[in-house]
Amino acid sequence: MGKWIGRLLLLILLGVFAFSAVKLLQIRNKYRTGEEIYDTATEQFTQTSEFTPESSEPAAGGIVETVDLLEEDPGVLYAPIVVDFDQLTAVNSDIEGWIYCEDSVINYPVVAAPDNEYYVERSYTRVVDPCGTIFTDADNLKGFEDNNTILYGHHMQNMSMFATLKYWLKQEYYDEHPYMWLLTPEQDYMIVLFSGYETSATSETYTIFRGAGSELRLYLAEAAAKSLFHSDFVPDGRGKYVVLSTCAYSYDEARTVLHGKLVPVGSAGGIPIE
After folding, report:
1. Which of 155, 205, 224, 239 could form a disulfide with 163 if both were Cys (CB 3.0 to 4.6 A apart)?
2. What angle do CA 102, 107, 109 make, to 5 degrees?
3. Helix or strand or coil: residue 82?
């Protein structure tokens, strides 16, 4: 009897192992499909900018000096890539922009979501895809018109989409990547990062501000105070800001977030603005 029980348990364990292996293979295949979709998008809709090489790098003095220069003259800096928004919006009219960070996996189209569920498991082409799409909060106005726009992206196990946001919580990584880029058909922005931390999905971090004022300034000051990295840039409440958000797994409903200011540069879709 003991031998039969042992054999039965072995068969059960082998069955569980085989089932787990099949599920893992299915997940990897789904991830591979998502990667191919976005790799194709990058190849089809973007290219490296060919405009004035000296205008493709921030000021040598650091991020604060760069912001000061841009506030005086946005034309001193262009986005480092060009995005073909005519073709991209022909694929999906929900396209709002393109988010890009040099020397990272972040290089994706951004859509305006009709709600906060639609693009959770749909690619930018609207096909079912577990990688989803980077999307703005459904309560945000289109065109990044709000003073605080929230962008959501998955924390994928293959470290695609917004999974690498957690890297910025380390000072060394932030020092090497103090900014990202947001390109839109009308205006490109340097996203000057100034805060990163973990928070709850129900926290006040997800407050949307339609305009400037004391409440926004207090919100930004509190965000900066929570940061796990130090930035020389101090937000003053002027202009527009973004929150980049993804899942964290340190507790239920945990989220990793980065705050950044949208600083206009001298290009739109990577093309210099005349």
Report:
1. 155
2. 145
3. strand
- 59, part of any domain: yes
Domains: count for the chain: 1
Does residue 8 lie in a domain region?
no
Q: Please check whether residue 123 is in contact with residue 129, taking contact to mean a CB–CB distance below 8 angstroms.
A: yes
Domain residue limits at 229: 27-272
What single DSSP character describes residue 273? P
> Under DSSP, is residue 260 helix (H, G, I), strand (E, B) or coil?
strand
Residue 164 CA to residue 147 CA, distance in Å, equals: 25
The pLDDT-based confidence of 78 (bands split at 50, 70, 90) is: very high
Over range 56-68, report the average pLDDT.
79
Is 70 within 8 Å of 190 (Cβ atoms)? yes
At 94, give phi and psi (nearest 5°). Answer: -80, -5
106 to each of 40, 84, 162, 163, 207, how far by Cα in Å? 14, 18, 7, 9, 24
Helix (H) or strand (E) holding 196: strand 189-200
Q: Which of 43, 42, 50, 160 is nearest to 109 (CA)?
A: 42
